[in-house]
Amino acid sequence: MITLTSVAKSYSSEVAIGPVDLTIPAGGITALVGPNGAGKSTLLTMIGRLLAMDEGAIEVAGLDIATTPSKDLAKIVSILRQENHFVARLTVRQLVGFGRFPYSRGRLTLGDEEIVSRSIDFLGMGELEGRYLDELSGGQRQRAYVAMVLAQDTDCLLLDEPLNNLDMQHSVQMMHHLRRAATELGRTIVIVLHDVNFASHYADRICAIKDGRIVHVGLPEEIMRGDVLTEIFDTPVDVVDGPRGRLAVYY
Ligand SMILES: Nc1ncnc2c1ncn2[C@@H]1O[C@H](COP(=O)(O)OP(=O)(O)O)[C@@H](O)[C@H]1O
Ligand SMILES: [Mg+2]
Predict the structure, then answer these.
(1) Which of 68, 213, 221, 232 is the most buried (most CB within 10 A)?
(2) What confidence score (pLDDT) does residue 106 get?
(3) What separation in Å is there between the alpha carbon of 196 and the centre of ligand 2?
(4) Mutate to test the pocket of ligand 1, among 7, 12, 41 (most ligand atoms within 8 A of CB)
């Protein structure tokens, strides 16, 4: 479970996020949606403790992130940031191996290597594992970063727009993989999604953020309504019943 209590961050006198109170239950997929600049990445990076909050408290799996040592936190929560991915001269396998750092401190055991292989296979990157990151397409690189986060083997995964750069096939595959990680492995996944239709189909609950505040939290069917989405995104959105659930139409 992840709990945010009165969490606030101001970047400047004009840009303030929060205060936010939110409880994300353990297990399942929680999708964060909302317009550009709403504060989704800010909240996610504060949960992952890569950004300090100004006020409030965050607990992950019962641990107060303000006081938990990094080496312990890194075994409980992993994060894929939206940007700032480093593209060093690393192979896919070397990158994914970094996910094991909290356990092995850089000297991978056989067990670590096995988890690295499994994570690479999970993302269908087996044939690319020897490639350097700068020899990959944007989508392939994105999958390699997700494999690294999976290799960290944490109960909570925070993923900021992991479908960026991915084509239809790989977006669907990635969401299938994450769905399995949540259902079969009991992981708690918090994911920022740009496309509300992916949130509708794959998430267990949707949390909508606008102007630094949480404006709706609920089941996909509660958020996937024309009036609700129109208000969240400030643009006309229709919701139709599709063959596999509700779909937002907004063009
Ligand atoms: N490092 C920063 N310095 C100043 N303002 C920032 C910084 N990062 C984000 N912001 C501002 O904070 C707001 C929320 O940004 P962000 O959390 O990235 O939104 P989202 O992920 O929902 O698009 C935006 O107005 C953005 O311009
Ligand atoms: Mg963002």
Answers:
(1) 232
(2) 77
(3) 15
(4) 41
Residue 243's pLDDT is 87
Closest ligand 1 atom to Cα of 38: 22
- Residues whose CB is less than 8 angstroms from the CB of residue 169 and which lie 6 or more positions away in sequence, other chains included: none
Closest CA to 214 of 3, 17, 58: 17
Q: Do 68 and 174 have their domain in common?
A: yes
Kindly state whether residues 197 and 218 are assigned to the same domain.
Answer: yes
- The total of structural domains in the chain comes to 2
Ligand nearest to the CA of 160: 2
- My answer on whether 47 and 137 are in the same domain is no
Which residues are in the CB-under-5-Å shell of ion ligand 2?
Answer: 40-41, 82
Segments of the chain scoring below 50 in pLDDT: none
Tell me whether the omega of the peptide bond preceding residue 35 falls within 30 degrees of 0, making it cis: no
For the question of whether the overall pTM of this predicted structure is more than 0.90, the answer is yes
Question: Which residue has 């209590």 as its token pair?
Answer: 5
